[in-house]
Amino acid sequence: MPLPKVIGSEIEYGITVQNDRDFDPISNCVLLVNSYEDNREAQILWDYDQENPLADARGFDVEGEKYTPNQQENIARNKTLKNGARFYVDHAHPEYSTPEVTNVLDLLAYERAGERSLEQARRAASLLLPFNNVLLVYKNNSDRKGNSYGNHENYLLERRTPFKDIVEHMTPFLVTRQIFCGSGKVGSENRASPCDYQISQRADFFETEVALDTMVKRPIINTRDEPHAEREKYRRLHVIVGDSNLCEVSTYLRMGVTSIVLGLIEDGEITKNLSIVDPVRIIKEVSHDPSCKREYQMERGGHMTAVQIQQEFLAMSLRYFSSHEIDPIIKDVLVRWESVLGRLAEDPMLLAREVDWVIKRKLIMDYMSKRGLDWKHPQVQMLDLQYHDIRPDKGLYFLLERRGTVDRIIEDEMIEKAIIDPPTDTRAYFRGECIRRYSDSVFGVNWDSISFNLGEEPIKRILMNEPLKGTKAHVEELLDASPTVQELVRNLTS
Q: For the ranges 1-5, 139-143, 293-297, 416-420, which has the lowest average pLDDT?
Protein backbone atom coordinates (compact mmCIF):
# COMPACT_ATOMS: atom_id res chain seq x y z
CA MET A 1 0.00 0.00 0.00
CA PRO A 2 1.21 3.55 -0.69
CA LEU A 3 2.13 5.95 2.08
CA PRO A 4 -0.70 7.97 3.61
CA LYS A 5 -0.88 11.16 1.60
CA VAL A 6 0.36 14.30 3.31
CA ILE A 7 -0.61 17.22 1.09
CA GLY A 8 -0.60 21.01 0.98
CA SER A 9 -0.90 23.94 -1.40
CA GLU A 10 0.96 27.20 -1.97
CA ILE A 11 -1.18 29.97 -3.48
CA GLU A 12 0.43 33.05 -5.03
CA TYR A 13 -2.09 35.88 -5.29
CA GLY A 14 -2.24 38.78 -7.72
CA ILE A 15 -1.92 42.22 -6.13
CA THR A 16 -2.40 45.83 -7.25
CA VAL A 17 -3.40 49.19 -5.78
CA GLN A 18 -6.10 51.28 -7.42
CA ASN A 19 -5.16 54.91 -8.08
CA ASP A 20 -1.49 54.37 -7.29
CA ARG A 21 0.57 55.57 -10.25
CA ASP A 22 3.80 54.44 -8.59
CA PHE A 23 2.58 51.01 -7.53
CA ASP A 24 5.38 48.90 -6.05
CA PRO A 25 4.26 45.28 -5.70
CA ILE A 26 6.96 44.22 -3.26
CA SER A 27 6.42 46.99 -0.70
CA ASN A 28 2.68 46.46 -0.88
CA CYS A 29 3.15 42.70 -0.39
CA VAL A 30 5.22 43.43 2.71
CA LEU A 31 2.51 45.79 3.95
CA LEU A 32 -0.14 43.12 3.34
CA VAL A 33 1.75 40.36 5.15
CA ASN A 34 2.50 42.58 8.14
CA SER A 35 -1.10 43.79 8.38
CA TYR A 36 -2.40 40.34 9.24
CA GLU A 37 -3.42 40.26 12.88
CA ASP A 38 -2.32 36.68 13.66
CA ASN A 39 0.72 36.90 15.96
CA ARG A 40 1.64 40.29 14.46
CA GLU A 41 4.22 41.12 17.12
CA ALA A 42 6.20 37.87 16.90
CA GLN A 43 9.70 38.20 15.42
CA ILE A 44 10.09 34.76 13.88
CA LEU A 45 12.58 33.98 11.13
CA TRP A 46 11.92 31.60 8.28
CA ASP A 47 14.76 29.06 8.45
CA TYR A 48 16.24 29.19 4.95
CA ASP A 49 19.18 27.07 6.12
CA GLN A 50 16.84 24.07 6.02
CA GLU A 51 15.99 24.58 2.33
CA ASN A 52 17.71 23.39 -0.85
CA PRO A 53 15.67 24.52 -3.87
CA LEU A 54 18.47 23.57 -6.29
CA ALA A 55 18.24 19.80 -5.63
CA ASP A 56 16.86 17.99 -8.69
CA ALA A 57 14.89 14.73 -8.49
CA ARG A 58 16.94 13.35 -11.36
CA GLY A 59 19.89 13.00 -9.01
CA PHE A 60 21.92 16.19 -9.16
CA ASP A 61 22.02 19.79 -7.94
CA VAL A 62 21.42 22.57 -10.43
CA GLU A 63 23.92 25.42 -10.51
CA GLY A 64 22.69 28.64 -8.98
CA GLU A 65 22.61 30.75 -5.86
CA LYS A 66 20.22 30.13 -2.98
CA TYR A 67 18.55 33.36 -1.92
CA THR A 68 18.78 34.10 1.79
CA PRO A 69 17.46 37.47 3.01
CA ASN A 70 19.01 39.29 5.93
CA GLN A 71 17.35 38.99 9.33
CA GLN A 72 15.31 42.19 9.12
CA GLU A 73 14.05 41.42 5.63
CA ASN A 74 13.34 37.82 6.63
CA ILE A 75 11.08 38.87 9.51
CA ALA A 76 9.34 41.51 7.40
CA ARG A 77 8.59 39.07 4.57
CA ASN A 78 7.60 35.94 6.52
CA LYS A 79 4.84 35.12 8.97
CA THR A 80 4.31 31.63 10.33
CA LEU A 81 0.76 31.48 11.64
CA LYS A 82 -0.87 29.84 14.63
CA ASN A 83 -2.76 27.47 12.33
CA GLY A 84 0.57 26.11 11.05
CA ALA A 85 0.42 27.96 7.71
CA ARG A 86 2.98 30.32 6.19
CA PHE A 87 2.00 33.77 4.86
CA TYR A 88 4.86 35.53 3.09
CA VAL A 89 6.20 37.54 0.17
CA ASP A 90 7.34 35.40 -2.75
CA HIS A 91 9.11 37.61 -5.30
CA ALA A 92 6.36 40.18 -6.11
CA HIS A 93 3.35 38.25 -4.81
CA PRO A 94 1.78 37.49 -1.47
CA GLU A 95 1.71 33.73 -0.93
CA TYR A 96 -0.26 31.59 1.48
CA SER A 97 1.00 28.05 2.10
CA THR A 98 -1.42 25.78 3.90
CA PRO A 99 -0.21 23.60 6.76
CA GLU A 100 0.34 19.93 6.02
CA VAL A 101 -2.91 17.94 6.04
CA THR A 102 -3.85 14.31 5.49
CA ASN A 103 -7.06 14.61 3.48
CA VAL A 104 -8.58 16.80 0.81
CA LEU A 105 -11.40 18.11 3.03
CA ASP A 106 -8.87 19.62 5.42
CA LEU A 107 -6.86 20.94 2.48
CA LEU A 108 -9.97 22.68 1.16
CA ALA A 109 -10.69 24.20 4.57
CA TYR A 110 -7.14 25.57 4.97
CA GLU A 111 -6.97 26.87 1.41
CA ARG A 112 -10.24 28.74 1.93
CA ALA A 113 -8.93 29.94 5.29
CA GLY A 114 -6.10 31.47 3.30
CA GLU A 115 -8.57 33.43 1.16
CA ARG A 116 -10.20 34.88 4.26
CA SER A 117 -6.87 35.60 5.92
CA LEU A 118 -5.70 37.49 2.83
CA GLU A 119 -8.93 39.48 2.82
CA GLN A 120 -8.55 40.38 6.50
CA ALA A 121 -4.98 41.52 5.82
CA ARG A 122 -6.09 43.42 2.70
CA ARG A 123 -8.68 45.42 4.65
CA ALA A 124 -6.19 46.26 7.38
CA ALA A 125 -3.47 47.24 4.87
CA SER A 126 -5.85 49.45 2.87
CA LEU A 127 -6.43 51.60 5.96
CA LEU A 128 -2.73 52.50 5.91
CA LEU A 129 -2.67 53.64 2.28
CA PRO A 130 -3.14 57.22 1.08
CA PHE A 131 -6.70 58.44 0.61
CA ASN A 132 -8.45 56.94 -2.41
CA ASN A 133 -5.89 54.14 -2.81
CA VAL A 134 -7.40 50.67 -2.56
CA LEU A 135 -5.33 47.51 -2.29
CA LEU A 136 -6.81 44.70 -4.38
CA VAL A 137 -5.97 41.00 -4.23
CA TYR A 138 -6.96 38.36 -6.79
CA LYS A 139 -6.86 34.59 -6.54
CA ASN A 140 -5.90 34.09 -10.17
CA ASN A 141 -2.82 33.13 -12.19
CA SER A 142 -2.08 35.86 -14.74
CA ASP A 143 -1.69 39.64 -14.82
CA ARG A 144 -2.36 39.86 -18.60
CA LYS A 145 1.06 41.46 -19.03
CA GLY A 146 2.76 38.17 -19.81
CA ASN A 147 3.35 37.18 -16.18
CA SER A 148 1.93 34.07 -14.55
CA TYR A 149 1.99 33.19 -10.86
CA GLY A 150 1.26 29.82 -9.46
CA ASN A 151 -0.84 27.53 -7.42
CA HIS A 152 1.67 24.91 -6.34
CA GLU A 153 0.57 21.57 -4.90
CA ASN A 154 2.64 19.26 -2.71
CA TYR A 155 2.23 15.52 -2.27
CA LEU A 156 4.42 13.35 -0.04
CA LEU A 157 5.53 10.13 -1.76
CA GLU A 158 7.72 7.16 -1.04
CA ARG A 159 11.32 7.83 -2.06
CA ARG A 160 11.55 4.36 -3.55
CA THR A 161 8.95 5.22 -6.21
CA PRO A 162 11.02 5.63 -9.41
CA PHE A 163 10.89 9.22 -10.63
CA LYS A 164 10.67 8.01 -14.23
CA ASP A 165 7.35 6.33 -13.36
CA ILE A 166 6.07 9.60 -11.95
CA VAL A 167 7.07 11.44 -15.12
CA GLU A 168 5.60 8.81 -17.44
CA HIS A 169 2.20 8.58 -15.78
CA MET A 170 1.73 12.04 -14.32
CA THR A 171 2.47 13.87 -17.58
CA PRO A 172 -0.70 12.77 -19.43
CA PHE A 173 -2.70 13.00 -16.21
CA LEU A 174 -1.66 16.60 -15.49
CA VAL A 175 -2.01 17.69 -19.12
CA THR A 176 -5.64 16.54 -19.15
CA ARG A 177 -6.91 17.06 -15.59
CA GLN A 178 -7.46 20.78 -16.28
CA ILE A 179 -10.83 19.85 -17.80
CA PHE A 180 -12.25 19.58 -14.26
CA CYS A 181 -10.02 22.01 -12.36
CA GLY A 182 -9.17 24.84 -14.75
CA SER A 183 -10.24 28.32 -13.65
CA GLY A 184 -11.01 29.61 -17.12
CA LYS A 185 -9.61 32.61 -18.97
CA VAL A 186 -10.64 35.06 -21.66
CA GLY A 187 -8.08 35.04 -24.48
CA SER A 188 -4.52 33.72 -24.55
CA GLU A 189 -1.01 34.83 -23.56
CA ASN A 190 2.66 33.97 -23.90
CA ARG A 191 2.54 33.71 -27.72
CA ALA A 192 -0.09 30.95 -27.60
CA SER A 193 -2.64 30.63 -30.40
CA PRO A 194 -5.45 33.18 -30.18
CA CYS A 195 -8.70 32.01 -28.62
CA ASP A 196 -11.86 33.56 -27.22
CA TYR A 197 -11.93 31.56 -23.99
CA GLN A 198 -9.88 28.72 -22.59
CA ILE A 199 -10.08 26.22 -19.76
CA SER A 200 -6.85 26.98 -17.87
CA GLN A 201 -5.11 30.18 -16.81
CA ARG A 202 -1.73 28.45 -16.57
CA ALA A 203 -1.58 26.24 -19.67
CA ASP A 204 -0.19 28.90 -22.03
CA PHE A 205 2.88 29.30 -19.81
CA PHE A 206 4.31 25.76 -19.96
CA GLU A 207 7.25 25.37 -22.32
CA THR A 208 9.02 22.12 -21.48
CA GLU A 209 8.18 18.65 -20.17
CA VAL A 210 10.56 18.11 -17.23
CA ALA A 211 12.73 20.68 -15.42
CA LEU A 212 13.50 22.34 -12.08
CA ASP A 213 12.57 25.98 -12.74
CA THR A 214 9.15 27.32 -11.76
CA MET A 215 9.36 30.80 -13.34
CA VAL A 216 11.25 30.47 -16.65
CA LYS A 217 10.70 27.66 -19.18
CA ARG A 218 8.10 26.20 -16.84
CA PRO A 219 7.88 22.40 -16.95
CA ILE A 220 4.82 20.15 -16.76
CA ILE A 221 6.74 17.97 -14.30
CA ASN A 222 8.75 19.97 -11.78
CA THR A 223 11.85 18.18 -10.51
CA ARG A 224 12.43 20.06 -7.26
CA ASP A 225 13.68 17.45 -4.79
CA GLU A 226 13.11 19.11 -1.45
CA PRO A 227 11.06 16.71 0.68
CA HIS A 228 10.92 18.78 3.89
CA ALA A 229 11.06 15.39 5.60
CA GLU A 230 13.39 12.41 6.02
CA ARG A 231 15.17 12.39 2.67
CA GLU A 232 15.92 8.67 2.53
CA LYS A 233 12.27 7.82 3.03
CA TYR A 234 10.25 10.56 1.34
CA ARG A 235 10.04 12.66 -1.76
CA ARG A 236 7.70 15.61 -2.25
CA LEU A 237 6.11 15.99 -5.67
CA HIS A 238 5.87 19.72 -6.36
CA VAL A 239 3.07 20.21 -8.92
CA ILE A 240 3.04 23.64 -10.60
CA VAL A 241 0.62 23.20 -13.53
CA GLY A 242 -2.64 23.81 -11.64
CA ASP A 243 -4.84 26.87 -11.58
CA SER A 244 -5.92 28.63 -8.39
CA ASN A 245 -9.51 27.57 -7.86
CA LEU A 246 -12.32 29.39 -6.11
CA CYS A 247 -14.98 26.73 -6.65
CA GLU A 248 -14.72 24.16 -3.85
CA VAL A 249 -15.58 21.22 -6.11
CA SER A 250 -12.70 22.07 -8.47
CA THR A 251 -10.19 22.28 -5.58
CA TYR A 252 -11.56 19.08 -4.06
CA LEU A 253 -11.17 17.17 -7.32
CA ARG A 254 -7.82 18.74 -8.24
CA MET A 255 -6.14 17.64 -5.03
CA GLY A 256 -8.22 14.54 -4.32
CA VAL A 257 -7.93 12.92 -7.74
CA THR A 258 -4.21 13.72 -7.97
CA SER A 259 -3.64 12.05 -4.58
CA ILE A 260 -5.45 8.94 -5.79
CA VAL A 261 -3.45 8.67 -9.02
CA LEU A 262 -0.18 9.15 -7.15
CA GLY A 263 -1.18 6.35 -4.79
CA LEU A 264 -1.65 4.04 -7.76
CA ILE A 265 1.76 5.01 -9.14
CA GLU A 266 3.39 4.25 -5.78
CA ASP A 267 1.75 0.82 -5.76
CA GLY A 268 2.64 0.07 -9.40
CA GLU A 269 -1.02 -0.07 -10.38
CA ILE A 270 -1.00 2.14 -13.48
CA THR A 271 -1.41 -0.63 -16.02
CA LYS A 272 -1.82 1.38 -19.24
CA ASN A 273 0.59 3.62 -21.09
CA LEU A 274 -1.37 6.83 -21.64
CA SER A 275 1.55 8.91 -22.88
CA ILE A 276 0.62 11.55 -25.44
CA VAL A 277 2.66 12.92 -28.32
CA ASP A 278 4.09 16.40 -27.63
CA PRO A 279 2.52 17.13 -24.21
CA VAL A 280 3.80 20.75 -24.18
CA ARG A 281 1.70 21.45 -27.27
CA ILE A 282 -1.22 19.36 -26.08
CA ILE A 283 -1.55 21.07 -22.68
CA LYS A 284 -2.36 24.26 -24.58
CA GLU A 285 -4.65 22.54 -27.05
CA VAL A 286 -6.67 20.94 -24.25
CA SER A 287 -7.02 24.33 -22.61
CA HIS A 288 -8.14 25.96 -25.87
CA ASP A 289 -10.93 23.41 -26.41
CA PRO A 290 -13.90 24.17 -24.10
CA SER A 291 -15.94 21.56 -25.98
CA CYS A 292 -13.60 18.83 -24.64
CA LYS A 293 -14.13 16.94 -27.91
CA ARG A 294 -10.74 17.32 -29.59
CA GLU A 295 -8.68 14.15 -29.94
CA TYR A 296 -4.93 13.89 -29.33
CA GLN A 297 -2.36 11.47 -30.69
CA MET A 298 -1.21 8.80 -28.26
CA GLU A 299 2.35 7.48 -28.23
CA ARG A 300 1.11 3.89 -28.38
CA GLY A 301 -1.03 4.73 -31.41
CA GLY A 302 -4.54 5.99 -31.93
CA HIS A 303 -6.22 9.12 -30.61
CA MET A 304 -8.11 9.99 -27.43
CA THR A 305 -9.86 13.02 -25.98
CA ALA A 306 -8.81 14.55 -22.68
CA VAL A 307 -11.99 13.14 -21.12
CA GLN A 308 -11.18 9.65 -22.36
CA ILE A 309 -7.65 9.82 -20.96
CA GLN A 310 -9.06 10.84 -17.57
CA GLN A 311 -11.64 8.04 -17.79
CA GLU A 312 -8.80 5.55 -18.23
CA PHE A 313 -7.19 6.84 -15.01
CA LEU A 314 -10.59 6.62 -13.32
CA ALA A 315 -11.11 3.02 -14.48
CA MET A 316 -7.73 1.98 -13.06
CA SER A 317 -8.56 3.74 -9.79
CA LEU A 318 -11.95 2.05 -9.49
CA ARG A 319 -10.38 -1.32 -10.19
CA TYR A 320 -7.71 -0.68 -7.56
CA PHE A 321 -10.16 0.30 -4.83
CA SER A 322 -12.45 -2.61 -5.62
CA SER A 323 -9.91 -4.78 -3.78
CA HIS A 324 -8.44 -2.25 -1.32
CA GLU A 325 -9.77 -0.50 1.74
CA ILE A 326 -11.35 2.83 0.90
CA ASP A 327 -12.16 5.71 3.24
CA PRO A 328 -15.30 7.85 2.79
CA ILE A 329 -13.45 10.88 1.40
CA ILE A 330 -11.66 8.88 -1.30
CA LYS A 331 -14.93 7.18 -2.16
CA ASP A 332 -16.64 10.54 -2.54
CA VAL A 333 -13.82 11.87 -4.72
CA LEU A 334 -14.14 8.83 -7.00
CA VAL A 335 -17.92 9.27 -7.29
CA ARG A 336 -17.60 12.97 -8.10
CA TRP A 337 -14.75 12.36 -10.55
CA GLU A 338 -16.83 9.81 -12.46
CA SER A 339 -19.89 12.07 -12.49
CA VAL A 340 -17.95 15.13 -13.68
CA LEU A 341 -16.18 13.21 -16.45
CA GLY A 342 -19.51 11.83 -17.67
CA ARG A 343 -20.97 15.32 -18.00
CA LEU A 344 -17.81 16.71 -19.61
CA ALA A 345 -18.16 14.02 -22.28
CA GLU A 346 -21.83 14.93 -22.82
CA ASP A 347 -21.76 18.74 -22.51
CA PRO A 348 -19.34 20.67 -20.24
CA MET A 349 -21.95 23.38 -19.64
CA LEU A 350 -23.83 20.83 -17.48
CA LEU A 351 -21.16 21.60 -14.84
CA ALA A 352 -22.08 25.27 -14.34
CA ARG A 353 -22.37 24.71 -10.56
CA GLU A 354 -19.25 22.61 -9.99
CA VAL A 355 -16.28 23.49 -12.20
CA ASP A 356 -14.62 26.92 -12.14
CA TRP A 357 -14.00 27.36 -15.85
CA VAL A 358 -17.57 26.38 -16.71
CA ILE A 359 -19.07 28.59 -13.98
CA LYS A 360 -17.10 31.58 -15.23
CA ARG A 361 -17.82 30.85 -18.89
CA LYS A 362 -21.57 30.75 -18.28
CA LEU A 363 -21.41 33.96 -16.23
CA ILE A 364 -19.54 35.80 -19.00
CA MET A 365 -21.67 34.40 -21.83
CA ASP A 366 -24.87 35.45 -20.06
CA TYR A 367 -23.43 38.94 -19.57
CA MET A 368 -22.35 39.21 -23.22
CA SER A 369 -25.75 38.04 -24.41
CA LYS A 370 -27.57 40.69 -22.34
CA ARG A 371 -25.20 43.51 -23.37
CA GLY A 372 -24.55 42.49 -26.98
CA LEU A 373 -20.78 42.24 -26.39
CA ASP A 374 -18.10 39.97 -27.85
CA TRP A 375 -15.15 38.24 -26.20
CA LYS A 376 -12.72 41.07 -27.02
CA HIS A 377 -14.71 43.78 -25.26
CA PRO A 378 -12.85 45.36 -22.30
CA GLN A 379 -15.86 44.79 -20.02
CA VAL A 380 -15.60 41.07 -20.70
CA GLN A 381 -11.93 41.03 -19.66
CA MET A 382 -12.82 43.01 -16.52
CA LEU A 383 -15.54 40.47 -15.73
CA ASP A 384 -12.96 37.72 -16.06
CA LEU A 385 -10.70 39.47 -13.53
CA GLN A 386 -13.54 40.37 -11.17
CA TYR A 387 -14.44 36.69 -10.82
CA HIS A 388 -11.19 36.26 -8.83
CA ASP A 389 -11.44 39.32 -6.54
CA ILE A 390 -11.19 38.02 -2.95
CA ARG A 391 -13.43 40.79 -1.55
CA PRO A 392 -16.66 39.07 -0.47
CA ASP A 393 -18.77 42.04 -1.60
CA LYS A 394 -17.00 42.52 -4.97
CA GLY A 395 -15.73 39.15 -6.17
CA LEU A 396 -18.12 37.61 -8.68
CA TYR A 397 -17.47 34.06 -7.51
CA PHE A 398 -18.50 35.04 -3.98
CA LEU A 399 -21.63 36.70 -5.36
CA LEU A 400 -22.58 33.39 -6.98
CA GLU A 401 -21.76 31.55 -3.76
CA ARG A 402 -24.06 33.81 -1.72
CA ARG A 403 -26.82 33.28 -4.27
CA GLY A 404 -26.46 29.52 -3.88
CA THR A 405 -25.75 28.98 -7.58
CA VAL A 406 -22.47 27.07 -7.04
CA ASP A 407 -22.02 23.84 -5.13
CA ARG A 408 -20.18 23.77 -1.80
CA ILE A 409 -18.23 20.95 -0.15
CA ILE A 410 -17.55 22.26 3.37
CA GLU A 411 -19.31 24.42 5.93
CA ASP A 412 -18.17 27.93 6.84
CA GLU A 413 -17.58 26.79 10.43
CA MET A 414 -14.83 24.46 9.23
CA ILE A 415 -13.15 27.33 7.37
CA GLU A 416 -13.33 29.66 10.37
CA LYS A 417 -11.79 26.98 12.58
CA ALA A 418 -8.99 26.47 10.05
CA ILE A 419 -8.11 30.18 10.24
CA ILE A 420 -7.32 29.78 13.94
CA ASP A 421 -6.33 26.19 14.67
CA PRO A 422 -3.72 23.89 13.11
CA PRO A 423 -4.65 20.44 11.82
CA THR A 424 -4.44 17.88 14.63
CA ASP A 425 -3.04 14.92 12.68
CA THR A 426 0.27 16.23 11.25
CA ARG A 427 3.38 17.96 12.61
CA ALA A 428 1.64 21.27 11.80
CA TYR A 429 -0.11 20.84 15.15
CA PHE A 430 3.19 21.05 17.03
CA ARG A 431 4.36 24.02 14.92
CA GLY A 432 1.12 25.95 15.36
CA GLU A 433 0.82 25.25 19.07
CA CYS A 434 4.43 26.26 19.72
CA ILE A 435 3.77 29.57 17.99
CA ARG A 436 0.57 30.00 19.99
CA ARG A 437 2.13 29.10 23.37
CA TYR A 438 5.77 30.23 23.08
CA SER A 439 5.78 32.85 20.30
CA ASP A 440 8.23 35.12 22.16
CA SER A 441 10.74 32.27 22.28
CA VAL A 442 10.35 30.87 18.75
CA PHE A 443 13.46 31.94 16.85
CA GLY A 444 13.01 30.25 13.47
CA VAL A 445 10.67 27.92 11.64
CA ASN A 446 10.74 25.70 8.59
CA TRP A 447 8.37 22.93 7.55
CA ASP A 448 10.62 20.29 9.09
CA SER A 449 12.11 22.18 12.05
CA ILE A 450 11.46 24.75 14.73
CA SER A 451 14.16 26.64 16.66
CA PHE A 452 13.84 28.15 20.12
CA ASN A 453 15.63 31.04 21.79
CA LEU A 454 16.55 29.84 25.28
CA GLY A 455 18.06 33.07 26.53
CA GLU A 456 21.65 32.55 27.65
CA GLU A 457 21.79 29.10 26.07
CA PRO A 458 22.46 28.44 22.35
CA ILE A 459 19.55 28.40 19.92
CA LYS A 460 17.98 24.94 20.00
CA ARG A 461 16.65 23.49 16.73
CA ILE A 462 14.09 20.69 16.98
CA LEU A 463 13.87 18.58 13.84
CA MET A 464 10.46 17.39 12.61
CA ASN A 465 11.41 15.00 9.83
CA GLU A 466 8.29 12.85 10.19
CA PRO A 467 5.20 14.70 8.91
CA LEU A 468 2.84 12.37 10.79
CA LYS A 469 4.52 12.96 14.15
CA GLY A 470 4.01 16.05 16.28
CA THR A 471 0.28 15.49 16.08
CA LYS A 472 -2.18 16.35 18.84
CA ALA A 473 -2.19 12.73 19.95
CA HIS A 474 1.61 12.75 20.15
CA VAL A 475 2.37 16.07 21.83
CA GLU A 476 -0.66 17.65 23.51
CA GLU A 477 0.20 16.19 26.94
CA LEU A 478 3.85 17.17 26.45
CA LEU A 479 2.87 20.76 25.62
CA ASP A 480 0.46 20.97 28.56
CA ALA A 481 3.23 19.75 30.86
CA SER A 482 5.65 22.43 29.55
CA PRO A 483 4.52 25.92 30.61
CA THR A 484 7.83 27.45 29.47
CA VAL A 485 9.91 26.85 26.38
CA GLN A 486 12.86 25.79 28.55
CA GLU A 487 10.73 23.03 30.03
CA LEU A 488 9.48 22.05 26.59
CA VAL A 489 13.03 21.65 25.22
CA ARG A 490 14.09 19.76 28.34
CA ASN A 491 11.11 17.41 28.06
CA LEU A 492 11.73 16.88 24.34
CA THR A 493 15.41 16.07 24.76
CA SER A 494 15.36 14.16 28.02
A: 1-5
Count of beta carbons in the 10 Å neighbourhood of residue 136? 17
Mean pLDDT of 210-219: 89
Sequence-distant contacts of 358-362: CB under 8 A, at least 24 apart: 358/184, 359/184, 359/247, 359/397, 359/400, 359/406, 360/183, 360/184, 360/384, 360/387, 360/397, 361/184, 361/197, 361/290
Predicted confidence at residue 1, as pLDDT, reads: 66
Could you give the CA distance from residue 200 to residue 161 in angstroms, rounded to a whole number?
Answer: 29
Residue type, 60: F
Residue 158 contacts residue 235 (beta carbons within 8 Å): yes
Nearest to 224 by CA among 58, 439, 450: 58
The Cα–Cα gap between 478 and 491 comes to 7
- Alpha helices, DSSP H, located in 199-269: 248-266
**What is the pLDDT averaged over residues 171-183?**
98
Cβ(190)–Cβ(202) under 8 Å? no
- Report whether 42 contacts 188 (CB < 8 A): no
Question: Could you tell me where the DSSP H helices lie in 291-395?
Answer: 306-321, 328-346, 356-371, 378-386
Would you say the pTM of this structure is higher than 0.85? yes
Residue 149 amino acid letter: Y
CA distance 100 to 7: 6
Give the CA dihedral 385, 387, 391, 392, nearest 10 degrees: 170
Residues annotated as catalytic (active site), given as ranges? 90
pLDDT of 229 strictly over 80? yes
The burial of 71, by beta-carbon neighbours within 10 Å (0-12 exposed, 13-18 middle, 19 or more buried), is given as: exposed
Q: Is 69 strand, coil or helix?
A: coil
**Spatial separation of the C-alpha atoms in residues 493 and 490, rounded to whole Å:** 5
To which H or E segment does residue 79 belong? strand 78-80
Domains and CATH numbers, the chain: 7-38+81-416 (3.30.590), 423-493 (no CATH)
User: Percent helix, strand and coil across the chain, each rounded to 5?
Assistant: 40, 20, 40
> Which three-class secondary structure state does DSSP give residue 147?
coil
311 beta partners: none
489 touches 459 (CB < 8 A): no
